[in-house]
Amino acid sequence: MRDYKSFEKILLDSLDLKRPPVAIAFLETPAPGVQKFEGSEPSSCSYWRLAAEGKTFYTVPSDHYNCAVGSHTHNIPLPAERQQELSDTIEFMTGIGYIRMEEVGKIPQLKFQPRVINYAPLGDTPVAPDVVICSGTPGKLMLAYEAAIRAGIAAATPTLGRPTCMAIPAAMASGTVASTGCIGNRVYTTLADDELYLALPGRDLLQFIHALEAIVAANAELQQYHAARRKALATE
């Protein structure tokens, strides 16, 4: 198994992250020794917050029923008695002008129905992650996205917005994606106003780490280069 603890440290140090990257893995059965989540959360992205706080656990489909949109992006069918919640949520969001109906069909969705979803800080993940979620400031996530481009693993897609959870299926299908987040996610995860997300496919993590180290070093040199040019050429 790869040294995810070292990977986590590199990401924390290189990107000045305030919280550890979150490793998300879709499994057929729970990983040995990992406890099931007990309790209730209002959204699928709420589990990102718990993992970023240091908790390792797994969820099952029913743990995601409270978020109709998150259930949709995770391809988790709602039970018959709750199926109306997705259309009610969409009707509410379109009614207040938050989203247009034609956008709904373009929201990425997992291509399979998950049985078990494992969440952990990257350094503690007991299994190889399918997606790694980083949250940080734009200036630092710029480095991360440049690293994804250098590694050839950046998705050919614009920055994602609402809903934030669609970054998971988008990253798994297309490569590294940036997300501005959404108001629901920011409420449920306490993501700060000056922070964004990067969703990285776990399969590309090693390539990404190597590219990130090169990009961080290159940007340090470029910062000095541009500072010297500004001092020499700017008249004001």
Describe the structure.
The protein is α+β, with helices and mostly antiparallel strands. It has one domain. It is built from nine helices and six strands. Strands 2-3-1-4-6-5 form a six-stranded antiparallel β-sheet, with helices on both faces. Helix 6 packs across helix 9. The longest helix has 29 residues. The protein starts with a helix and ends with a helix. The mean pLDDT is 94.
Question: Can you summarize this structure?
Answer:
By secondary structure, this protein is α+β, with helices and mostly antiparallel strands.
The low-confidence parts are none
Number of strands: 6
Total discrete domains: 1
Order of helices and strands: HEHEHHHEEHHEHEH
**Helix content, binned percent:** 40-55%
Q: What portion of the residues fall into strands of 2 or more residues?
A: 5-15%
Q: What distance lies between the first and last C-alpha atoms, to the nearest angstrom? A: 54 Å
Tell me, rounded to a whole number, the average pLDDT: 94
Alpha plus pi helix count: 9
Based on CA inertia axes, which overall geometry fits? globular
Radius of gyration: 19 Å
Major sheet summary line: 6 strands, antiparallel
The assigned structural class equals alpha+beta
Spatial strand arrangement across the major sheet? 2-3-1-4-6-5
